[in-house]
Write a structure and sequence with these properties.
Layout lengths: L4 H6 L9 H25 L16 H30 L3 H16 L2 H15 L5 H28 L3 H9 L4 H12 L1 H17 L1 H5 E4 L2 E4 L3 H10 L3 H30 L16 H6 L3 H18 L14 H4 L3 H29 L4 H37 L2 H16 L2 H12 L5 H27 L3 H9 L4 H35 L1 E4 L2 E4 L3 H11 L2 H32 L5
Antiparallel strand pairs: 1-2, 3-4
Length: about 575
């Protein structure tokens, strides 16, 4: 059975004695991280340079890597806070949910270049004397590549909580925070961990665009690993490009060993099952951390705090209707806050429409025909990339997720491949496919596939790992055939995760179209027809009317797909394919 946060933390305490040197290492790492953050903050507040030169010397790579990891970390913390809040607010009211989910789908599908000019120019104007504006712009752009899939994944977890667990929470009259820490967060933990890994991979993918970008005749650049790779690719410096990619691989391996693998092993405690699995993920880092005296004290304090909160009198009343407790047990104050959020969103949309009308009035009739043709071209590439992604990620993801030993070996490899920016490899793809008929279109689909297939794979792996071991053992005891096992157990179990993966992958494909359909490397510029190419050209030339029209066209297509396809699949996953 899924454990609550306090219980899981308490049960991490091993019988082994504490090791003082582990605490010393933790303190040294904390001091090094604090020094790095203070050093980076001093650069942020320093005088803004008119031109930032990127040093391609290998000695500059450690500093650039540290700056990029810090930006990614800040963006991830914002993404996690946003996702947990947004998903939790969305389920407070069914009407509000029908508004917030399409907005989330729309936000993840809007290309970075569509709102990058306003964000960058606005923040630079707000902080003209230092680099804070540019740094905040980079963090926000990385945030847009990390937040949406975490929010979708956690919302899917909230909607598929087993009814018996929901009824137990209502019978015990759990208050909002108790319910969140004892039921909702633990049940969604596996999805959160794997979607967090995907968010970091997505952040690496758009790091080059976040740290180095051009708006009209202005060029903005920040020191970092992304700008290092972009500069190396622009100068055709293959050795520097390979060194940058090697640095990225080393960072991915370190993050896997010290962050993600311990989290995957720890997250196994939150799996909903009656019989624990005999073969569970393990991590040497987690085993070492369990011997830390300082962390034990933190866990004990957290447990006492949680136990003290649980003794407070309950203020909520439970709902008498089964299956709706997580909606009906919310205090009226939270419902009012949810409606205020919806009203604020509608007011923001109305304000945006009032600003958009003057810009759209500048369009010519031939621009409308161009937009229709470009929309169809990009939609076709998006659907092809999604189909190819689903065909190979479902069997591979199930294979990895249902084999813990294989997952331990494949996890760093998948993260590594998913995190390598495909934009850095795109010149090589172009050299291979440009001489073929429709070569640029094939290369564009491949780049969209490289940037989006991982959303499906990571979600399928999370879904396969969340399948209770007792159900898997029952299928073996009854000697189900492979086809029957897939039809009656595997596909129904991973279906909610698959839908979430396809939604985020489609949004990622629309977003990746800006770098797949319009590519500049060295002195060459290669493009093909599509909304991504139109948006990229409009952003580069400063044609904000056509930029807005292209973004709105993409938004209309995304909304139609949401209503006709994703909304129905999401409802099916919520009502039929849940672990009850």
């Amino acid at each position: 059975m899924a454990q609550s946060f306090p219980t899981a933390l308490r049960e991490q305490r091993p019988a082994a004695r504490s090791a003082w040197y582990i605490d010393v290492i933790l303190l040294l790492l904390f001091a090094a991280a604090a020094y790095g953050i203070i050093s980076a903050a001093s650069n942020w507040s320093g005088t803004a340079a008119s031109v930032t030169r990127i040093d391609l010397n290998p000695s500059a790579l450690p500093r650039y890597a540290g700056l990029s990891v810090l930006r990614m970390l800040i963006a991830y913390c914002l993404s996690l806070a946003f996702s947990l809040t947004y998903a939790r607010v969305a389920i407070l009211n069914p009407v509000l949910e029908r508004i917030m989910l399409p907005i989330l789908d729309l936000l993840q599908s809007i290309p970075v270049l569509s709102f990058m000019p306003g964000i960058v120019l606005g923040l630079v104007a707000a902080f003209p004397a230092n680099n804070v504006g540019l740094e905040l712009a980079a963090v926000i752009l990385i945030f847009t590549s990390q937040a949406w899939n975490i929010a979708f994944g956690f919302h899917q977890s909230l909607m598929t909580i087993p009814r018996e667990l929901d009824e137990a929470a209502r019978l015990y009259r759990l208050r909002f925070w108790q319910r969140f820490t004892r039921l909702e967060l633990p049940f969604g933990m596996i999805s959160l961990i794997w979607n967090s890994m995907m968010s970091w991979a997505g952040g690496w993918f758009f790091l080059m665009a976040a740290e180095q970008f051009t708006l009209g005749n202005k060029s903005f650049r920040l020191p970092g690993l992304g700008s290092y790779l972009a500069t190396a690719a622009g100068k055709d410096d293959i050795s520097a490009l390979l060194l940058g990619l090697l640095t990225l691989v080393i960072i991915i391996i370190l993050l896997d060993q010290f962050i993600w693998r311990p989290l995957v092993a720890w997250g196994e405690r939150f799996k909903v099952e009656q019989v624990p699995s005999a073969d569970v993920p393990r991590s040497w880092v987690l085993t070492a951390l369990q011997r830390s005296y300082l962390l034990r004290r933190v866990e004990t304090a957290y447990h006492h705090l949680a136990r003290g909160n649980s003794r407070r009198p309950h203020l909520e009343t439970s709902s008498g209707q089964p299956g709706l407790g997580f909606r009906r047990s919310v205090p009226y104050l939270h419902r009012a806050a949810a409606w205020l959020v919806g009203a604020g969103a509608l007011a923001l949309v109305g304000w945006a429409i009032s600003l958009a009308i003057p810009l759209l009035s500048r369009l010519q009739p031939h621009d409308v025909l161009t937009l229709l043709g470009d929309s169809g071209a990009t939609l076709t590439r998006t659907l092809i990339a999604l189909l190819v992604a689903v065909l190979w990620t479902v069997p591979v993801g199930v294979w990895i997720g249902m084999n813990p030993k294989l997952a331990r070996r494949a996890q760093p490899i998948v993260q590594m491949v998913a995190s390598i920016p495909a934009t850095a490899l795109f010149p090589v793809l172009l050299l291979i496919f440009l001489d073929l008929p429709a070569g640029i279109d094939i290369a564009a689909v491949l780049l969209m596939l490289l940037g989006t297939q991982w959303y499906v794979l990571f979600n399928v792996i999370a879904g396969a790992m969340a399948i209770p071991s007792d159900l898997r053992e029952a299928s073996s005891i009854f000697k189900m055939s492979r086809w029957l096992r897939w039809r009656s157990l595997i596909l129904p179990a991973i279906f909610p995760y698959l839908v979430t993966g396809m939604i985020t992958a489609t949004g990622g494909a629309w977003n990746a179209s800006i770098v797949a359909e319009y590519v500049s490397f060295g002195s060459k510029t290669v493009s093909t027809r599509g909304l991504g190419s139109l948006i990229a050209e409009s952003a580069g030339s400063g044609n904000f009317a056509l930029l807005l029209a292209g973004t709105l066209s993409m938004s209309i297509v995304v909304v139609l797909m949401n209503r006709l396809v994703w909304h129905r699949l999401y409802h099916l996953a919520e009502t039929r394919y849940r672990l009850d």
